[in-house]
Amino acid sequence: xxxxxxxICQRADTLATKKLYQTIVCKKCSQxxxxxxxxxxxxxxxxxxxxxxxxxxLWGSMGEGALIAIQLLAVFAFLARDVANGRSPGKRLxxxxxxxxxxxxxxxxxxxLLRNLILLVPFMILVDGMVLKRGSRIGDKLAGTMVVxxxxxxxxxxxxxxxxxxxxxxxxxxxxxxxxx
Length: 181
Hints:
Layout: E1 16-20, E2 23-26, H1 27-59, H2 64-79, H3 89-93, E3 96-100, H4 109-117, H5 124-130, H6 138-143, E4 145-149, H7 153-156, H8 160-168
Antiparallel strand pairs: 1-2, 3-4
């Protein structure tokens, strides 16, 4: 039996045995991504709670309407937190980026809202936290996204899953000039 090196860390001394986004990787790389995602979520939550506390302290005396507006803004900020080039503040600090699973490009507002909307369902955060070792949360599957280590994205995005998805995409035709018509 031949040992297959991990496509992420490319170490030959680690046996690639875990599935991460349908790609076989070593246990260390699988666990590293899950740990980084948990850390990023924790940092984002602390930042959001701190911002809510600050805004509540500043505008809380303005009445119940201001507090409701702060809560709605916080929910939107939570759902859209990956909109800045696929990276929330926690993901930036954890060297992570959310990308479209079929193109490898950073996600925008629509996919950020879709992938995080599921987290509003009670207890779904716990379920999602348990499946992170496989790479995809339920929200990632719904939105067609994946989270990769930014510094290793070129290695991971070159794995067969992404290559096959990109190859399956229809080729784009160059635009016809007005003279050719």
